UniProtKB/TrEMBL annotation:
<feature type="domain" description="DUF4349">
    <location>
        <begin position="63"/>
        <end position="262"/>
    </location>
</feature>
<feature type="signal peptide">
    <location>
        <begin position="1"/>
        <end position="29"/>
    </location>
</feature>
<dbReference type="InterPro" id="IPR025645">
    <property type="entry name" value="DUF4349"/>
</dbReference>
<keyword id="KW-0732">Signal</keyword>
<feature type="transmembrane region" description="Helical">
    <location>
        <begin position="244"/>
        <end position="266"/>
    </location>
</feature>
<keyword id="KW-1133">Transmembrane helix</keyword>
<keyword id="KW-0472">Membrane</keyword>
<protein>
    <submittedName>
        <fullName>DUF4349 domain-containing protein</fullName>
    </submittedName>
</protein>
<keyword id="KW-0812">Transmembrane</keyword>
<dbReference type="Pfam" id="PF14257">
    <property type="entry name" value="DUF4349"/>
</dbReference>
Length: 279
């Protein structure tokens, strides 16, 4: 019995190091697995005003892109906005200029969560050169608009009460009707202003400026450019020569009589120095 117990203890002592080594290997190998790739940070995130703040955010982005891809990217950005692919979006403006250095500008008003997606689309296969964000505080404008709205609503309620009275003369009722129509018109204008302010606060304005390197020119274009430069140089040289001639004319007018006077004095001096030969 003692012999069997001794064998069992010896076997346990032999197996324990193997088990510990296996556990250690498992713990060491666990971190060696492939790590999760970090999510790419957005190029530019939209901003949402906090509760009680009346801030209208605007973003400006400058993108440099190849000239041959400018129109394609411009159409993609415009379609993404008009189709509201990333959320509510209004196209505010679009400009395109051609020439040796083509450029374009797109301005949209969209939801804050769509700003980073639109910027990523604009900067795809391009270089994001600069980005900036600013906020305009509309608290004063919102406060003034709310006060005007409340005042006009009180006036409308008062005039409607006068209009419902039965003891007013016809002339007074006509005057009340005119005043009520004027108040209704002003109230509609103020309500539109208030809605415009709320939209500016709830959305972000994004302006993307595209610039492209000089478009590649063919052989004929390069030949025409060289010829044009030659003609320009010839024209400028001719103009400079004419200008120098015009500038020099007054000096010529002054120097010509002086040259004649010097010539006459020189001839007289020569005659006095060399007497005429004797016969």
């Amino acid at each position: 019995m003692a012999r069997r117990l001794t064998k069992a203890l010896a076997g346990a002592l032999l197996v324990a190091p193997l088990l510990l080594a296996g556990c250690s290997a498992g713990h060491d190998a666990a971190p060696r697995g492939p790590a999760a790739a970090p999510e790419a940070a957005p190029l530019l995130s939209g901003e949402q005003a906090k509760a009680g703040a009346y801030l209208a955010y605007e973003h400006q982005v400058a993108v440099r892109i190849a000239a041959e891809r400018l129109d394609e990217r411009l159409d993609a950005l415009r379609n993404a906005c008009t189709e509201e692919r990333f959320g509510p979006c209004d196209l505010l403006g679009l400009e395109r200029s051609s020439g040796a250095y083509p450029s374009a500008q797109v301005s949209v008003r969209t939801a804050p969560e769509a700003v980073d997606k639109l910027v990523a689309l604009a900067a795809q296969d391009a270089t994001l050169e600069s980005r900036s964000s600013r906020a305009e505080d509309l608290a004063q404008a919102v406060g003034d608009t709310d006060q005007r709205l409340e005042r006009l609503q009180r006036q409308r309620t008062l005039l409607q009460g006068y209009q419902a009275r039965q003891d007013l003369a016809v002339a007074d009722l006509l005057g009340v009707a005119r005043e009520l129509a004027d108040v209704e018109t002003q109230l509609a204008d103020v309500q539109r202003d208030a809605e415009r302010l709320r939209q500016r606060i709830a959305t972000n304005r994004l302006t993307v400026d595209f610039s492209a390197d000089r478009a590649p020119a063919g052989r004929l274009a390069r030949l025409g450019e060289a010829t044009g430069n030659l003609l320009d140089t010839l024209t400028e040289g001719t103009l400079q020569a004419l200008q120098m001639l015009v500038y020099g004319l007054p000096f010529l007018v002054l120097l010509f009589p002086l040259a004649l006077l010097l010539r006459a004095l020189w001839r007289r001096a020569v005659r006095r120095r060399d007497p005429p030969p004797r016969p």
